[in-house]
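Q: I'm writing up a methods section and want to include an example of the input and output format. Could you take the sequence below and give the corresponding predicted structure tokens, formatted cleanly so I can copy it straight into the document?
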Amino acid sequence: MPDPDVTLGPMHRSPLALLLCFATSACGSWILEEPTDGSEVNWYGTILDGPYTGENGVLSGGEVLVYDLDEELVAEGTEPDADNPGYWKLQVPPSTPVALHLAGQGMLPTVWRGVTPGDLGYWYTGALFAYEQELWLPFFEQFDGQGAVSIQPLGDDVCWLWGSPADPDAWAGAAIELLDGAGQPAMVLAYHLSDQGELEPATTRSVQYFLAFNLAPGDVTLSVQAVDGRAFEETWPAWPGEVVSAWFLELPPGDS
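A: Here is the clean output for your methods example:
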């Protein structure tokens, strides 16, 4: 089975909406904040070049585009400090579900889903990342042939997906279904990370990572049904050639 060539650091155990937006009272910023009229808020953070490893580079000089769910462009990211590359500013409407499209030189383009903060906000370093092509393309390609999947290259007609639950144990034995942008079902490869650091088919064990390939661009919808009855569904508006980043996903709370 695939054996990751990189060591992934500890995952945040929070839903994406909370991961990307957190209270600012406990963390100041060394950047002078521009006032807004309330129709927009400032959102800051570092964008890495891949999942957190402790040795990451950053996405700098690229493109960060924020769209609302009506596919209207609401923000274009800027890097406000030349001495701190990879630190981005987004001026966005508050408390709005959005899609974030990331691209840059030497990066595999990707799309995220999130919710903008209600006021001045920051995202944690490691919460948002692109994929440095030289490092991560070989990682994806090692899944070729798994589950009878012959991986097609990213391109005008092809997207991929890589995701990770916030609570891997909650996804043990879950039914994971995926529809691509053409409404066609796609095979999801779900993996358990062993104590030896090897990826093995999850079957009924905890799910650390899940991947899908050869997806038509468009609205890619993931549905999860846990064995305890909890369910989750999310949709990413994937552009041609993007990797859908379905990270830090959390099932709804169960009955107490």
